[in-house]
Amino acid sequence: MAEIKLDSLIKSYGPDQVLHHVHADIEDGEFVVIVGPSGCGKSTLLRMIAGLEGITSGEVSIGGKVVNGLEPADRDIAMVFQNYALYPHMSVRQNMAYGLKIRGLPKAEIDRRVQEAAEILEIGAFLDRKPRQLSGGQRQRVAMGRAIVRDPQVFLFDEPLSNLDAKLRVQMRLEIRKLQKRLGVTSIFVTHDQVEAMTLGDRLMVLNGGVVEQFGTPIELYDRPETVFVAGFIGSPAMNFLPATAEGGVVTLDNGASLPGAGGVSGPVTFGVRPEHLVPDAQGPIRVQVQVFEALGANTLVHGVLEGTGTELVVSLPGHETPAPGDVLHYAAPSEHHHLFDAESGARIAP
Amino acid sequence: MLKRVHFPASLLPYLLVAPQVIITLVFFIWPASQAVYQSLLVQDAFGLSTEFVWFENFVYLWDSQQYQDAFGRTILFSAAVAFLSMSFALILAGFADRVIRGSTLYRTLLIWPYAVAPVLAGALWLFMFNPTLGIIPFILEAIGRDWNHYLRGNQAMFLVIIAAAWKQVAYNFLFYLAAMQSIPRSIIEAAAIDGAGPLRRFVTVIFPLISPTTFFLLVVNAVYAFFETFGIIHAVTQGGPANATTTLVYKVYNDGFIGLDLGGSAAQSVILMILVIGMTVFQFRFIEKRVQY
Fold first, then answer.
1. Which CATH class is domain B19-287?
2. Residues of chain B positioned with their CB less than 8 A from the CB of A72
3. For residue B132, is pLDDT > 90?
4. Which residue of chain A is at minimal alpha-carbon distance from B195?
5. Whole-model pTM above 0.80?
6. Are B197 and B50 in contact (CB under 8 A)?
7. ipTM
8. Alpha carbon distance B107, B181 (integer Å)
């Protein structure tokens, strides 16, 4: 059993606080992805869990045991690094056996485990090669192998796919997902790529500027983003944000168009709607003046501005469309796909 | 399509390389050939007559017990200096690599000894080990040891080894530190997560990864101990007592300028020259290739 608990974690470098009160309860066997733009503190958070970075205040516990004071070696974790961090002077076999040897396992047991991991990851053919003789994808597998032979309580992944080419990245992503489900080991994966995050994680923690914006399942984040940041970060192309005013249950956009809004809210708000939720409707209140369109094959992205304003807007339409620049198109959005955020704080306003 | 550019033949390229060629000829090739020529001659002590004797000087050295002793002594001296200075530098670099606060100060202080002239380095140690005035004999006396390197050959040898090694520590330290810092941090972190403590990480990961530097320094230190320690020995012991610290390079000076055996001294120089050429070739040929990963 290895649930991970982060309790009010703070990290400061001198006077600069880079992580603010991070809380999380990660269940046993869960795959959690920490996602955010670069510099948001996600790698720092992972390294604090690993024990490579000191904890300014707060508590990290793994499997019910507070590990703040423990060395990385004593936390029973394994980590896969962005640049793989394989030992260049050791063969693949030695790389994988290193941690086991240090733990003093009998030789037969080490051999068995290395063999088993090599079979899972299909790297048996080059166990006796040096890392420099391997391709990027193979090195990635060896790094994973080094993690799984240890049979740790927790896997930590620090952007392990960012050095791979696009095709390999998609393939490895799937493999990591399958492997994690098969082994059932609690895992934390750091990435800046929201697609990677959405496809891998049981739950996602969105970090921004050292603050947890939201922690939930991918679908929760997509359907009910708690802040403007999460709404804009999750989903591609990003959600449209339109400045608006709420008054008596009606939301009025800057160009005077009215939409049904939430009751009991008044004042400036941000109205959000995803490009794929806008549907053509001759009576629709959202009028878009087309600038350019991108034909992606499966769908067409129409870029334009809200008529009468400078607010940019993207609409995703299924199939092939060829709107002419300057055309004004009318769209409606089903009210269950409306998002309202406080214009000041960016926090979600019901629903 | 490969385009070839033809320059008209001109004097310019020759003029451009001329300074380097002239310096090499005047300061290296000419003295070296003089030494080779001189090694085939025998002169009387007053320089009145010179005789061409082919390899008689070398044959004499080959048979000379004194020369053989100096040879063995030099090898012992070089090995001790290289081992001491390298291992000490390695330990210091290992610690410096882990220091975060005040690392610049720490490094600067460690590099200082390299800026000290060899004779001064010798004088410093000589003063500390002076049997009547020095602090170390004073301390040794307190624990019942008598120190007098003017009388005891072993102690004199020990002293020049310490002085020569001390001066070279800074140089080795710089190279080791640079090598350690070029190891990606994540490899060390991976080893830490794999359960290796600092000492184990050093032995199983850091040390193997800096082995090319170790091989390079081994040759550099051997060359240093063979050829550049004259100043230290001259300042500390003058080769004594009873030739106990006369290394090959000191013997060249001693036989040539004190003993006025110019031919024999030149022959020793030629042998040293061949040794240093051999070591350099060895370094370029083998050590450059001997990269472990």
1. mainly alpha
2. 189, 192-193
3. no
4. A73
5. no
6. no
7. 0.81
8. 13
